[in-house]
Structures are given as C-alpha cells and as structure tokens.
Design goal:
- The protein has 140 residues and is mainly α.
- It has a domain of 97 residues.
- The protein is 61% helix and 0% strand.
- The chain contains four helices and no strands.
- It is elongated.
- The two termini are 20 Å apart.
Length: 140
C-alpha cells in the first residue's frame, strides 16, 4: 500500500495530527482504485480456481475500504495502522498465492526481491508499469 499512496508522515496536517485535505482526498481516491483492483483480482482468482483464497481478498478489501473513509485521515497514527494492516494483508495474500501457484520451486521470494522467477518477470513488470501510470510515477 505504501508504494502507491502518498506518505502520511510527509504532511503534518492540522493540529489534530491529520493529513491535509488535498492529500487525504488523493489517498482516499487511490484506496478506491485499489479496492476496484482487489475486486478484479478476486474475480480472476475465482476464474482460475482459487476461490478458496477469496476470504483473504475480502479481508484486504475491508482494509482498503477503511482507507476510503475520511475519518481515517484525521489521525496519523491511526492512518499508519490502517495502511500497515492493508499492506500486511497484501503480503499474506501474495505469499499464499506464491505457495499455491509456484509448486515447482520450494524457495519463496519476498516482495521486492530482485530474484523473481523467470515466468513471473513479465507480469511483474507490467504490474509496475500500470501502477506507475495510476499513481503518476515516473515508470517505464
């Protein structure tokens, strides 16, 4: 989650320790995009016969929905906890999917590792290209 969303620490916000309204609006909008992406992922997983992982995706969606709520941005500590919860759910889902889909390799790779199995490199590159377009990053 932290990769595509503005850093809450960067903006001191108001006296209550929240995020300034423009950044909060941008972050809520991005959370909404991530919810739509997660729903699409859930649909694809169902088509691929991975419906047993739907609960993990639903948990992720619930975390992301919390980040769509305006009051999530009133308190930086609360915001960071919500972001961390969503990130943890993404990592857990990723690990679960890797364990199920890459049965040819006993070694698991951590997110962000440069040692990506060759069959996934193209997909990961495309994912980051799309992500950089959504977040306005300077990707390829």
């Amino acid at each position: 989650m932290n990769r595509g969303m503005p850093n809450a620490n960067r903006n001191a916000g108001d006296a209550r320790g929240g995020v300034n309204p423009q950044d909060a609006r941008n972050m809520r909008n991005q959370a909404g995009e991530f919810v739509r992406d997660a729903r699409a992922l859930r649909d694809l997983m169902g088509q691929a016969g991975l419906a047993d992982d739907a609960q993990a995706v639903d948990d992720l969606i619930r975390s992301l929905r919390e980040l769509e709520r305006g009051e999530a941005y009133d308190n930086l500590t609360n915001l960071q906890e919500l972001q961390q919860a969503a990130l943890t759910r993404v990592q857990q889902l990723e690990l679960s999917l890797r364990q199920k889909l890459d049965t040819s390799n006993d070694q698991l790779f951590l997110s962000g590792s440069e040692d990506v199995p060759p069959q996934f490199r193209g997909l990961i590159e495309e994912y980051y290209r799309r992500l950089s377009k959504k977040t306005g990053g300077g990707g390829n």
